Amino acid sequence: MDFVTGIRKKNTVGIADILRKGMYDVSVSLRGAVHTVREMRGFSFLLLRSYEGLVQCVVNETSSEALQAAVRTLKEGAAVKVSGVVRAELRAPNGFEICLTAVMVLSEPAKDAMLPLPIAKRKLNTSLEAKLSLRPVSLRNLRERAVFKLQEGIVRGFRDFLFSEHFTEVRTPKIVAGNAEGGANVFKLEYFGKRAFLAQSPQFYKQTMVGVYDRVFEVGPVFRAEKHNTTRHLNEYTGLDFEMGYIDSFTEIMDMEAAMLAYTMELLGREYARELAILGVVLPDVSKIPSVRFDEAKRLAAEKYDRKIRNPYDLEPEEEALIGRYFKEEYGSDFVFVTHYPSKKRPFYAMDDPADSKFTLSFDLLFKGMEITTGGQRIHDYDALQRKMVERGMNPADFESYLMIFKYGMPPHGGLGIGLERLTMRLLDEGNVRETAMFPRDVSRLEP
User: Fold this and answer.
1) Rounded to an integer, what distance in angstroms lies between the CA atom of residue 28 and that of residue 11?
2) If residue 75 lies in a helix (H) or strand (E), which one and from where to where?
3) Is the dihedral angle over the CA atoms 98, 99, 104, 105 positive or is it negative?
């Protein structure tokens, strides 16, 4: 009888093994996909792609004719196992190459398959539409891969930092009976004869769980049925959400986000230096982030850039860009917290400013002139929440399960939601949020 006892060590190595153990002038075996084959006078270079990056393998005129022929006939995308001797070579990726002695093909592409994109190039010089339509192929390009490794680092930083601050990770439903944000931009579902929606936000459930764990967070999909097709909107994106109880001020939420960003940027610099170099990213300084009231931010941008304020209740994309520009020019910051948004433009659960109920104890975080975070303090009093619902023409009876949270007691609390793709987009200075969505969903795209 056989027993499963855990992971069995394979007789192959990876890039990190070779570098860490200094395995030079040693015969090794490794596995990977054929990234490209380059024919030179008297040489053939085989570049293998693995999760760690590229490995350069070489055959020359001293190699057997069978080996030379085997390398020449390899197709891009084939999965292979190679063996050979490691030699130091500073011009090769990672500073070494494998002088091949054997190649074993593990699997091959279809006979007539030709790669539709030049994935071996440093950057895919093709349209965004082509990259997205051919996503399983385009993601094999090193630069495209680096985008989502960096995104992994952002999520890792968010999660690890919040664990260190005693947050509990939760998972909330994405099929819901009502919508948290209000408005009509929801995806409707037929749910066994009942009306249901895809969740616009985990807001109600985050608040529920503050009553259980005090501090909670979630990384999960968010759905918005917005019909406009812009460079900054997706119909499905990844939300980084947290909610925290027993706060004295909504500014504690901003403090927590600033500390999380500092932790995450340090992690990216330490653990993702290779991806940062591939993408040419310079990490922003988050040691101190300016904070400005909503009305003051609008005034500053209007006066400096001679732009008339057209909408006193919200920030237009052009205004966000100008406010970001103002704080970059005046304070050298890529980030700015804009606080005290008008109550008229915030959800019913946003707590009004006791000093002026036209404004809320809420904020957005702008990064290079684009909103990447919305957050603030929530109403935690049962009666106050019902009054605000009625003032807005809402029927509290329609929110019975939500109001149950507060009926039986809740601490002062607040939280935020970050758009992962937008944060990545601004970090990379990309012009379209679809560049930072692995498989984007928009008004025209459901595949691949």
Assistant:
1) 9
2) none
3) positive
The pair phi, psi for residue 168, each rounded to 5°, is -110, 130
- DSSP letters spanning 196-207: EEE-S-SHHHHH
What sections of 332-431 are H helices per DSSP? Answer: 382-391, 400-407, 420-428
Q: Is the dihedral of CA 185, 190, 192, 198 positive or negative?
A: negative
Bridge partners of 82, per DSSP, are 30, 103
Amino acid at 270: R
Distance of CA 419 to the CA centre of its chain: 7
Q: Is the peptide bond before 448 cis (omega within 30 degrees of 0)?
A: yes
How far is Cα 232 from Cα 370, in angstroms, rounded to an integer?
9
Question: How much is the pLDDT for 208?
Answer: 96
Backbone dihedral angles phi then psi of residue 104, each to the nearest 5 degrees:
-120, 125
Structure-model confidence comparison of residues 119 and 148, the more confident one: 148
Whether 181 shows a pLDDT value over 70: the answer reads no
Length of the chain in terms of residues written = 448
Q: What is the pLDDT of residue 258?
A: 98
- The answer to whether the beta carbons of residues 433 and 234 sit under 8 Å apart is yes
Question: What pLDDT is stored for residue 10 in this prediction?
Answer: 84
pLDDT of residue 222: 95
Contact indicator for 425, 414 with CB cutoff of 8 Å: no
- ∠ CA 216-414-404 to the nearest 5 degrees? 80
